[in-house]
Amino acid sequence: MSYARPMQTKHALKVLAGVCTGLLAGCGSDFTAADEPDGGSETGDVDVPNPTGVSAGWDDDETTDGEGSGGVGGCGDEPACSGATPFCVDAACVGCDALENPDEACAATDPDAPVCSPEGCVQCSAIDDSLCSDNTPVCSDDGQCRGCTAHDECETACDFESGWCFDEAVVVGEDGVATAGALSAAIEGVPGGGRIAIRWTPGDQCILDTLTIAEGRSVALLGEPGARPCMTSWDDRAAITVTEGSSLYLLDVRIEESYGTAVEVRGASVYADRVELVNNSGGAVSISQDAYLNLRNAMVGGDRNNVSVLRTHTSTLDVAYSSIVAGFGDAQGIVCDGDNAVSVRNSIVLSEGSIGEIDCPQADVSYSALEAVFGEGNVAVGAVETGRWFEDYPAGDLHLRYDTLGMPFEDVAQWVQGDPLVDLDGDPRPGIAHASDWAGADIP
Questions:
Q1: Nearest one of 223, 222, 271, 229 to 246, comparing CA atoms
Q2: Phi, psi torsion values for 27, nearest 5 degrees
Q3: Which of 86, 168, 177, 425 is 20 to 30 A from 308 via CA?
Q4: What percent helix, strand, coil does the chain show, rounded to 5?
Q5: Cα(132)–Cα(130) distance, rounded to whole angstroms?
Q6: What is the pTM of this model?
Q7: pLDDT given at position 68
Q8: Is it true that the peptide bond before 79 is cis, omega within 30 degrees of 0?
């Protein structure tokens, strides 16, 4: 279930004296007008517009001189009050914000749109999102409940594929102490098709663990920016294996020095943001069997020879603002096998080897820093200088080192709507469409 607040009992249905809406039929028999002036009855039925547009406050035979057609003289019966002004008050169509109890009037009109806004009656607002739950936990700017699309829209993390917010996160490594196997132990009890968010507190050392996420489970593994918790695998298996239609969300974590691959994905999905997958002997990520990898603000690769950083077989790879650096020998940044869909934007892709940084004919690469030029907006940086460009390449630190000689990665990227607003460490991106930016995960 979602962490979002459960649906609450709606407002009591009330309509102010002399106020009704063109969407509420027959309410004249249920509500009475108070203090009717000039000899009117003390209480009397209030005629209200019905869905066909009958006007409020007078009979049909009294609407003359355009009053019955929605003109200046009255609400009328054609057209009915609707849209942003659905209420008829004193012979004029008005919005809910003109009423004394606007939310209550909206709730009486439509229990599924009980909140008054400048646009009319809507599902939710910033102060009342009680109807937003389950797979629509977020109130959008237009007052409608929708699924989450970013982790910061949830108190825990967002399951992008379903729109749910994860339940309250399980904490691992509280007080900075996490034992070997603590992460895999946290997901052991999750049933097939279930979901769990793990809040992983940084410690002084990498922890040993090997995770398998299968049977359609959804797992969010959340660290902390700037002090990312670190894990390494038990053996030559992948540190994390995701399969059988499952999904994994990595945010602010580091996987390093594994004997195998950092993350292996088979017929499943991985969304990785602000991660470091470095110096793993089997490479950073391998995806296959129609898998999907979404990589943002990531540092992947490092000083490992004869191993490719990202490998894809008949799958989809979507990379943006990432630093992908391979070692010597046969090492390459991105390698494709089979029929793949590969997009790389605003990134750094390099290899110290001699056979090229990208072996993927179908890749769409744009606004990135490469060793050689191809594709839209890309820049050739020439021979790789890992010692000058990166803070500590042998240790897997791919943060950029800015010096007086300048860097070939500045003003290469082009920010577009939907791109990250910050870099790996929280430094702001331009946030302006088509603005120039640093390529890769780090702004020095």
A1: 271
A2: -75, -5
A3: 425
A4: 10, 30, 60
A5: 5
A6: 0.80
A7: 33
A8: yes
